């Protein structure tokens, strides 16, 4: 339904104000084209002498025009400004914009795109200047009329044409991922053959805060006995890692023969390789598409580090205190009193290796080390070190050792909070 309103009966500003109040809940849908609405705005501004009205009167007229024309307040203000500048003309308000008569004509057609695709296929996507030169030769030297437009193609616009949908539909170029060529380390899984001394290492980050990195935890665990050594550094650069790696290797009671990591540059570098070569330790690294190569160290990150240290940000300045806690309390509890699950491997008739975890196979890393010592599969650093570890383990129960670890951990986290409050 269309309602035509005769607004010529409104003669004063007071009448317009009453009209706006009475029609506050009525929504006007503007009908007609812009020319008719422009004429309505011109009539109202002229009839009420908008130019000589005070501020209050002008505001009322602007609200009235906004309500009746359907334009926004900003658009009405622009039209009033245009009317004021051209009020002496026959038609003060004229539509300044119009749709283009015809779309822009394309200089390079679909056939030109096809010629570009053909040239790129033949020359394996030569660089831009070389391809442009080929187009010029095709038209000027070989008199091929198809290349008349492309002979004047600029190098910059050549790359624009290569990005168009028409080109991409006909010519899609895939580049294979280049394998990392690094001579450091052997790309293979560790081969411990049931012997102790083949460790896997991984690092885990302790959160960011306002773009500032926190500490890094270094997890190093033996493949067979699950003997685990945790350490903490301020960063994973060579300056922080090398001293800690030496400390980590010293905390293992047996001789380290293999060192396995992922392909991160914190471990695959010449300084770490030199350190391991000096100790006669074989360095291996994870293989492509073999996600289980370093799974043991990564699982310890979740079940040990995240469980006890959490996910919250810890500033770098606490790395030394955390490292001291690891060395004196946490690592002894891990290896002497914390049980681990050990798998029983069985080969099926089809040759598939199946791992099962039995209750009888649950034991601490020290108990697993004792079993390997009986089988002659552990090479200890000193003859008395296993006896010393057994004495240390018998000094306190598993519960007492765990409670002591929790107390020391609580003191460590309390020191973080106190220093923050002082700051």
Task: Please describe what this structure looks like.
The chain has 423 residues and is α/β, with parallel strands linked by helices. It has three domains: 7-85, no CATH class; 110-170, no CATH class; 195-422, Nucleotidyltransferase, domain 5 (2-Layer Sandwich). It has 15 helices and ten strands. The chain has helices at residues 13-22, 34-47, 55-69, 73-85, 110-123, 128-140, 155-163, 165-170, 238-250, 270-278, 295-309, 319-336, 365-375, 385-394, 398-422, and strands spanning 186-187, 198-205, 208-209, 212-213, 216-222, 228-233, 258-261, 282-285, 343-347, 353-357. The protein has a six-stranded mixed beta sheet, sandwiched between helices. Strands 3-4 form a two-stranded antiparallel ribbon. Strand 3 and strand 4 (212-213) form a beta hairpin. Helix 6 (128-140) packs across helix 7 and helix 12 (319-336) packs antiparallel against helix 15. The longest helix has 25 residues, at 398-422. The radius of gyration is 40 Å and the shape is elongated.
Spatial separation of the terminal alpha carbons: 71 Å
Number of spatially distinct domains: 3
Tally of DSSP helical segments: 15
Strand content bin: 5-15%
Write the CATH homologous superfamily of the largest domain: Ribonuclease H-like superfamily/Ribonuclease H
* Overall CATH architecture of the largest domain: 2-Layer Sandwich
Please identify the top-level CATH class of the largest domain.
Alpha Beta
CATH domain topology of the largest domain: Nucleotidyltransferase, domain 5
Shape: elongated
